[in-house]
Amino acid sequence: MKRRTFLIASLGTLAAASGLGSCKDREATHLPQPPAPTVGPDGKRRLPWQNWSGYQFGLPAVRAAPASEDELAALLPRTAAPVRPVGAGHSFAPLVPTDGTLLSLRNFDGLRAHDAHALTATVGAGTRLGALGALLDGIGQALPNMPDIDEQSLAGAIATGTHGTGQALGALHAYVTALRLVTPQGEVLDCSRMQHPEVFAAARVSLGSLGVITQVTLQNVPTHHLKRRVWAEPLDSLLERFDELARAHHSFELYVIPFCSRGIAITIDPTEEPPRPRGQERDNDALVHLQRLRDLTGWWPGLRRRLLDLATAGLPEEEAVDLWYRIFPSSREVRFNEMEYHLPRDALLPALKQVLARVESRHREEFFPIEVRTVRGDDAWLSPFYGHAVSGSIAVHRHHREDPLPYFADIEPIYQAYEGRPHWGKMHTLDARTLAQRYPRWRDFLALREMLDPHGRMLNPYLRRMFGLD
């Protein structure tokens, strides 16, 4: 999980010392299974694709990685549909699966151009965020904010509204000033607020349904160092101080550990202090310890809380100073599926309290921390932050080998009373009718999509259902 260095190594020892038996096997036996490789009618072998968590998969008839924009423009009108672009596969929603063409942008990467005075950079849309940091730093630029996973492709992160945290900071797509889109009909459009402005407003968050973005121009800031501070504090105190901390810091996020009286706070701020790089990543070990404690004490929540409180008592504060792109992201080795909703800012803490109460009363099996963030609003048509000055985000997770659906189905209704909007790359169940009520430009987006892709070549079954076309 993102920067979850919040449990001391002794947690595993504490759990084992409880003497409550061995870990219980909680693996779901009915998780979806990827299809076996097959041979298509054309005699070619078809290999399955699956996402990072292993929950979404497909068996594409064609795998394509065009080497140039001209090749891409010629391919899109002719290749087997549905055509679905793929990046790192870090979306938990079934945006990518297709039995048509799986299209990689791995050849559309790297720095294309930059303006040192305006602090803009044009980058290939297939560039991974992990590579983007060093590229931008090399020309003296930095992203204003960054998601907590840096394995995604730039195009995939933008298409799904991927974001970091900070109530004065927008999601990644909010810093896009121009993009180039190849439509399903093979037309190449240069889009900005001045050129094809409606396409630009729609394409910044498009779920890959308007065509294929090949390059993006980003508005950046000068490269800089950041200071990251992590500490544990009584949860009641953190909730009381949430607004103060969110206002005072460049980035602030809160992690609420189920069955623990303390929360974990993380702040990130610009600094001119000398570098003190982050030490060994312990987030993944912490999650393993939390899972083991869950297994050992799931039948006795009081003991679980006592052990977690003991483990987090006196937890030393951590500080690190480094270049911006080394501070924002963390490694993710413990796989999971995720549901995240974005709410009006004043609904964030009331909804969070309801989510935590439901987790602790009905879902003793849950051990992943609840992730709480804030994001500045923007004007991209399908942005979950559209029209809000500031949005609040709540994310819940389920281990990749455990069925996420019952848990997510029980938590999701809490968000509906607040007219929550889902993160497009995470799991949700909202249909076209509800989404049209939550997104003011929903129908405008659908009309533009129909104009750019009248035959629905970019739409897999999931998108067709979500757009109300089936």
Automatic annotation (TrEMBL):
Lineage of producing organism: Bacteria, Pseudomonadati, Pseudomonadota, Gammaproteobacteria, Nevskiales
Region annotation Disordered: where it falls in the sequence: 25-45
PANTHER family, A to Z: D-ARABINONO-1,4-LACTONE OXIDASE, L-GULONOLACTONE OXIDASE
UniProt KW keywords: FAD, Flavoprotein, Oxidoreductase
InterPro entries on file: ALO_C, FAD-bd_PCMH, FAD-bd_PCMH-like_sf, FAD-bd_PCMH_sub1, FAD-bd_PCMH_sub2, FAD_lactone_oxidase-like, Oxid_FAD_bind_N, Vanillyl_alc_oxidase_C-sub2
Keyword Disulfide bond belongs to the record: no
Domain FAD-binding PCMH-type: 56-223
Keyword Flavoprotein: yes
UniProt GO molecular function: D-arabinono-1,4-lactone oxidase activity; FAD binding
GO CC terms, sorted: membrane
Protein name: FAD-linked oxidoreductase
Recorded superkingdom: Bacteria
